[in-house]
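Quick one before lunch.
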Amino acid sequence: VDGLVKHFPIRGGVLQRQVATVRAVDGVSFRIGRGETLALVGESGCGKSTVGKTIMRFHQPTAGTVRFDGRDLAAMKPRELRAVRRDIQFVFQDPFASLPARMPVGDILAEPLEIHGVGDRRSRRARVVELLELVGLGADAVNRYPHEFSGGQRQRVGIARALALEPRLLILDEPVSALDVSIQAQVVNLLARLQRQLGVAYLFIAHDLAVVQHLAHRVAVMYLGHIVEYGDADTVFTRPAHPYTQALLSAVPVPDPRLRDLDRRILLTGDLPSPADPPAGCPFHTRCWKAEERCRAERPALEVRTPGGADSACHFAAEAELTSGPAGRTAS
Ligand code: SF4
Ligand code: MG
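Model of the magnesium ion complex:
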């Protein structure tokens, strides 16, 4: 994904003229390797779902390119695009809303196979049972309806459906956010096992770092349409360079003793600014406890700022250490 931009027009008045632009995604770049998990993390409204949906072509990008296997999706002929649609599948946040209520699970799982003309009726049935077993559901689920399942089981069905065509990339849009905390770990563990077993890559979209800490190989932290930190999961979790990442991470119970010793929670004050009217300079400056004059005027580029560190979009990331939480805003 290279320089991806997605702006939405806001129209108003009797003539429905464009009165503003929501800059949902404002120049986002990253790559995901085979069989690898990139976690895309940020609070709600930061544009992370829009990134996933634009890769899926649910939205047309305003600018930028998305390549799969080196090939530009926008330049593909319909036939090539259909093949890529098999390779990239989407798992929705809400397993209650995303499964058709009136279809038995067997039909829900067979549907993508039918649409893509895979196998005959009998082999599709066999594949459906295989998929159910893959996600830890029994073959008897075939004749049951979504409402007969718990939230966690429904999300397993959603994952099975997404895996039906043996995709190479799953875009998971907050796949456990709608589930009870006790169930979340089970689904995350399932996803980890499926990745080991199938070698499928994940773009795992989440609003907090805790959910992805055992799954992510790399992490991209998003704020107001921009990636503000991007690097190996180990680096981001142990040496977060951007103040926003530090704030997100301070909410995560981490086993790392260096972080535990800090024993502090960085509480962000103020609201997320509107993506229709983003602040000048660093997009985080209205909530950043380290902001200086320069931050209001000049947007920091996303680049490596400490030896061996993650890419960070903060003018002062080189000076940022874990010990530099916001004075007066910490609680132990
Ligand atoms: Fe904070 Fe300035 Fe860094 Fe932005 S550039 S994160 S406002 S210190
Ligand atoms: Mg979302």
